[in-house]
Amino acid sequence: MCGIIGYVGDRRASPILFKGLKKLEYRGYDSAGMATSGSGIHLKKVVGEVKKLKPFLSSLPGTIGIAHTRWATHGKVSERNAHPHLDCSGKIAIVHNGIIENHEELKERLKGHEFRSETDSEVIAHLVEENLSRGPLKAVFEAMKLMRGSFSFIVMIEGFPFLIAGRKDTPLYVGIGEGENFVASDVLAFPKGTKVIPLEDYEVALVSKESVAIYRDGKRVKKQARSVSFFEDFEEIEGHYMYKEIKEEPKSVSRAMNQDLSEAIRILRENEVCLIASGTSYHACLMAKLLFSKIAGKKVEVYLASEFSHFLDSIPKDAMIFAVSQSGETADVLEAIKLAKRKVISLVNVPTSTLARISDYVIHLNAGPEVGVAATKSYVNQLVIFTLLAYGLAGKLGEGRKLLQDLPKEIEFIFSQEEKIRMLAEKLRDKEHIFLIGRGYSYPSSLEGALKIKEISYIHAEGFAGGELKHGTLALIEKGTPCIAFVDDEEILNNVNEVKARGGYIIGIAGRHNELFDEFIAVKGFFPITSIVPLQLLSYHLGVLRGYNPDKPRNLAKSVTVK
Ligand code: G6P
Question: What ranges in 67-187 are assigned the alpha helix state H?
Answer without folding.
Answer: 103-109, 122-131, 136-146
